[in-house]
Amino acid sequence: MGEAAVQSKSSARLKPGVVTGEDYLTLVEACKAGGYALPAVNVTGTNTINSVLEAAAKNKADVIIQLSNGGAQFYAGQGLSDSSAAKVLGAVSAAKHVHMMAEHYGVCVVLHTDHANKKLIPWVEALLDHGEAFFKETGKPLYSSHMLDLSEEPIDWNLDECARVLKRMAPMGMSLEIELGVTGGEEDGIGGEFDESADNSKLYTQPEDVLQAFDKLNPIGSFSVAASFGNVHGVYKPGNVKLRPEILKGSQELVARQHNAGPNPLNLVFHGGSGSEKEKISEAVTYGVFKMNIDTDTQFAFSEAVGKFVEEHPKAFKYQIDPDDGTPFKKFYDPRKWLRAAEVGMAERLSEAFVDLGSKGKSLAQA
Ligand SMILES: [Zn+2]
User: Fold this and answer.
1) Which of 23, 62, 82, 114 is flagged as catalytic?
2) Residue 114 annotated to the active site
């Protein structure tokens, strides 16, 4: 890329709303060039989605909204008996909500689906059926990107599958997140409970594997890599996890050398960001991490706020009217009251994430 192109990208402005295709690439490049990353927040319903949008708007930051298969199923409703259908319908419904609302919050939003292992490839392909239909209607894909996490399979099979699916996504300007190496811990039934005593060498991605992925996928379309550098899903006791962000540097340098590319040619993703030391987060961002997943910490912030609300108004969650003095409690048990407290709690935690990742005030959106 020439000097002029870099110049124009760094001052690029985008239309607020869901970004896909060229706009998605502009946003990712701006993150890497500007040395900041976007939080990718797992959502499960309109409360959590709106909380993310509110926090992004308040911090003048762009953001990534993502659904796991379980989150998508929950969005559709746990009462729906066909769970496979629910996972698809929930993800479609959530995406349509975000397409409808994001532009009104005045920020750019990347819409993404989280971990899909071998069993969940049909889920991603069903979403691509919906994505292609949406693309025909609107000229935009339904999602900006999907993830395929085939890191438990042999690497050749992993990359062949990723190439096959990316071939379908690329014509719509969609990007694919892949995983190499294994993020420790369990998330939504994918991966195992983190075992500190096990041989954890797989917790560190090998640069040769990343190069192999680049060689195979870069000619097809846009992709990003969830690289492992000791990161673990969930929050564990301090000291149990050794984060080594310098692992990422090795992969960037190898690919840059082999392909005569500029610094940080890879778009990297940091999974298991909750509970990580702030210096390690900043260091990872300097090595081309543009996306950091956050789920555990925002889940806790959402629920902590509800717990606090219930503790402050305990009687309102037992009686409609105060049994002692007849005061009506409607203004406390109205679900909007305690759900609003939850939204505010989650948004406050996200404000912290925007600061940690350096993305506060960096939104590219311009109406
Ligand atoms: Zn993850």
Assistant:
1) 114
2) yes
